[in-house]
Amino acid sequence: MTGQDVSPQLVPGVDSDLNDRLLAGLGAVQQRLTEVVDHEDEFIAGAARYLSDAGGKRFRPMLTLLAAEVGPLSSEEVAQTQVVDAAVGVELTHLASLYHDDVMDEAELRRGVPSANVVFDNSTSILVGDLLFGTASKIISGLGAEAVGIQADTFVRLCAGQIRDDRPVPAGAEPVEHYLGVLADKTGSLIATAARYGAMFSGCDAPTVALLTEYGEKVGMVFQLADDLLDIASDSADSGKTPGTDLREGKATLPVLIARASSDPADDRLKELVAGPIQDEAELAEALTLLRAHPAMDTARAHTLRVADEARATLEPLGEGPAVQALRLLVDGVALRSS
């Protein structure tokens, strides 16, 4: 130990110079976030800052900054472009969705602190989410018509995915295929846009922008698949969220869908428990115990790792380099959260 400060690694194993640039970029993103969510009304300002101040990894803006490293512009040129505002717009959109999610999920924890709907009320949480969506739109409007169109399409997909997630699987639809489509919309779309903006505003050509957009969507799928596994596998001390939220709401994530399809009579009790929302705390604990020990968890993890492999494979045309290597390492970090 030298006694010198060591910069935290945003992506384990990332090039140190690249890591320093990403940290500097995230500092600029945080400063801009603080500026744009401020409000003359003290209550509104505090409510708008609440989930942002609670922390989080800033995964989406970090991906915007990292994708920008693939472009031909130098780091100094990128800092003077629209990359930071694009990252801020993506993070504001994400934060806005969390306020709405807290109302819909009726969860008690978010990022290790009381969720927005607990601290405020449902109406305030919804309105603050709307306010942040509006703020995101204002920021993105300064990036040009193409960026505005991308933001609008992303917002439509995000909302459509959330609506579909809250409804039963349509008659005749294959449950797992439907579920994966929901994930692509509600999570993959915004993470795809994060990568797309980074590529666009750092001078990447159209094929590279398309490639990084595809990569971002697959990473988003991995992110949500891992998150759904963590909702079952971890406790609140590990995840900062209330475990079993999806089971409480009756949402059928991949492990549940796999368990429901079991023909083994030994799974009858588990299938009974996960047939719908679980309101009773003892039954929720029983369902979590049974699911954690069920082969469905390993099957779902294996699927998550396959999608991670697909995400890495999209990067092959980009060759090597610190940014591309970091994008590969990022996939590993996201996927292995579920292990």
From TrEMBL:
PROSITE patterns: POLYPRENYL_SYNTHASE_2 (PS00444). The keyword Magnesium applies. Transmembrane segments: none annotated. Keywords: Magnesium, Metal-binding, Transferase. InterPro entries: Isoprenoid_synthase_dom_sf, Polyprenyl_synt, Polyprenyl_synt_CS. PANTHER family: ALL TRANS-POLYPRENYL-DIPHOSPHATE SYNTHASE PDSS1, GERANYLGERANYL PYROPHOSPHATE SYNTHASE. Belongs to the FPP/GGPP synthase family. This is Polyprenyl synthetase family protein.
